[in-house]
Amino acid sequence: MSAEQTFDAGLVEQTKQQIRALVAEITQLSKSDMPADEFYTQFLQRVVAAIAATGGVIWKFSDGGGLTVQCQMNLRETGLGSDKDKMAEHSRLLYHSLKHPEGLIVAPYSSSQEENGTMGNPTGNLILLAPLITEVELVGLVEIFQRPDAPANTQKGYLRFLVQMAALAVDFIKSEQLRHFADRQLLWNQIEEFARTIHEGLDPRQTAYTIANEGRRLIGCDRVSVAIRRGNRCRIEAVSGQDLFDKRSNTVRLLNKLATAVVSVEEPLWYTGDTTNLAPQVEKIIDEYADESHSKAVIVIPLIPEMREEDKEDYKKRQDKKKKPLGALIVEQIENSAIQSRLRQRVEIVQKHSTVALENSLDHNSLFLMPVWRTIGRWSWVVKARTLPKTILVLLVLLVAIVAMFVFPYKFEVEAEGRLMPVLRQEIFANIDGDVSEVLVHHGDTVSGPVYRPGVRLDEKKRPILDTQVSGSTEMRVIDPWAIIEKQGTKLATLRNIDLRTQIVKLNGDINRTRQECSAIEQMLSQERTLSQEDRIRQQGRVAELRRQLEAYHAELFLLRVKQRSLDVYAPCDGVVITFDVREKLTNRPVQRGQVLMEVADPTGEWEVELFMPENRIGVIREAEKKLGEQYSEGLPVTYILASAPEKKLKGRIKEIHRTAEVRPEKGCTVLIKVAIDKDDIQPNIGATVSGKVYCGEKPIGYVWFYDLFAFIRQKILFRWL
């Protein structure tokens, strides 16, 4: 007997320990911040386990005011779910128990008659009821189904335990409500900040940018874009997180099409991967955009302004005054495709506020001459009483300055860039096609020109006139240009032409073969005495033909020898090689006849400035030459400076203006102007950069200062209109 009592005492202690552990777990659950559904499920499981009950239900008040099941255990086993009459009787019991904050015990199969029907426990279980009551409201009810065979004291203990556990559940509810209120307050603060921010400005682009960035922060999504409707199409004006974006990219182009398609049907699009119920035109575009952007969820909401309340009542007014969409709000989720209720609510909030802000900005910006009125408004302070005298004084000064610009003359000079070059310089051309086999000079080497025979005529640049040669009192046509040269100048380079060498070898072979054939016929004619007169005449004719052919071969060989001598390139005049890196540029390089190989200049002679005058300014210089020709008969004055000595202004005069314009790299279409200068004024440096100004008379100050602007207006504006 004592052994059984000891065992019972140990079992009781073990049961108490389990109950204490469950109570501790419930206490921890009440202090946690887990979701409500998970808390109620774990709470009910531990309460049922602590008192070894058969099941239970947690009832919560819905938005409509009725009790709904929050979570349950073994409710179907009680038989309540299958019989409507039992459920009605049980429901009346639940509402009656809400009037007993201390809890309620209801025996099995007990009932009482009320005004609205029978109220009671239609099940065979003992029902324990404990309401969930906070300081301000009745939240719900905890119902436990227990076995009916427990003593009365034990049943009261069950109820006390349930009431205590309900108090812990109420603590969790209070914490949840506080968190909910805090989240709601934070949301309202965010909405207030969002509404204030998007209504700060009236510029549509700035408003769209603010909606995209602040809307993304409020919604909590990955990306928000704003499209504005222009005509029948929508254009993306702002993308969250991006100050600038490529409007021609495939992503933006497809997003434009998607916004246009959704706005045209005026129905929101909630895409999460399923396109079953979408319009065909929208389905195709959303599939292309999802493939391009890799977005899992895409929401496109048309921004349609709401009508006034008085217009909503009348159907005709509602149709006549129906406003067109302003654009679209595009919300995207890249990683998560689930669209939760919280996201839906915040998207709707952003859509409503964004529609109003965008409508105000577009209406304001569409006013006639709004940029002008805005500018006038900013400068309205200049006509106020205090600043009016200063304003009048400033206007008078500006008026005097404007009049002076069109009355007082000033020297008019046209600027151009150029270079400093010797007057005597020659480009060395290739006289024949070939490959450069050897270059014998370097940059800066001094070379000497050829010495011509007496009587050879030379031009002003010491170049021979190659078509005639004076010999005594007669003129003879020159076939070989080297015949007039007594001594060659410095050898500059050597060319190689395999085809020319092949022709010479072949021609020598033809000459030898013809000469042998002619000698053989002549020997036969001298030794053979038996030839008839007819054969002798025929052979003598053959000899004459071969001799004429030999003369032609020799003449052709002479011309080929002349061409062969052209493979050696000589300096045409005294001077210095001014081509930079001449060996590196020419060695082993194929060249064609007439191609420039290098340039030789004589730095000891006269120098000149070459100005590359833009083509659109040459007309001014031509006009100045006509007006100032008598005053400056030697040429218009030119003032120039060297880049190496900008502190010193030098003077020259125009001696030649080319009649044709040429396109030069980095300078555009220019006309070459040669300027005569005094060699003693400069330190010669071939190719030195020069900045020059050509004097073109006197013009009003305004014309001198704004000549380029006037020329642009005449060329680009007035010419096209008139």
Distance between the termini: 129 Å
If strands are numbered along the chain, what order do they take across the biggest sheet? 13-26-29-28-27-30
What level of helicity do the residues show? 40-55%
Low-pLDDT runs of 5+ residues are 1-7, 468-479
Largest sheet: 6 strands, antiparallel, barrel
What's the number of extended β-strand segments? 30
Written description of the protein model:
24% of the residues are buried. β6 (126-133) and β7 form a beta hairpin. Helices cover 44% and strands 27% of the residues. It has 722 residues and is of the alpha+beta class. α4 packs parallel to α10.
Which secondary structure elements does this structure contain, and how are they paired or packed?
Elements: H1 2-31, H2 36-50, E1 55-61, E2 67-73, H3 84-97, E3 104-106, E4 110-114, E5 117-121, E6 126-133, E7 138-146, H4 152-198, H5 204-219, E8 223-230, E9 233-239, H6 250-265, E10 269-271, H7 280-293, E11 297-303, H8 309-313, H9 315-320, E12 327-333, H10 341-365, H11 370-378, H12 388-407, E13 409-422, E14 425-429, E15 434-439, E16 446-447, E17 451-452, E18 468-471, E19 474-477, E20 485-487, E21 491-496, H13 498-527, H14 533-565, E22 568-570, E23 575-577, H15 582-586, E24 590-591, E25 596-601, E26 607-614, H16 618-628, E27 637-642, E28 645-664, E29 668-676, E30 688-700, H17 701-705, H18 707-721
Antiparallel strand pairs: 1-2, 1-7, 3-6, 4-5, 6-7, 8-9, 8-12, 10-11, 11-12, 13-26, 13-30, 14-25, 15-21, 15-24, 16-23, 17-20, 18-19, 21-22, 23-25, 26-29, 27-28, 27-30, 28-29
Helix pairs in contact: 1-2, 1-4, 2-4, 4-5, 4-10, 5-10, 6-7, 13-14
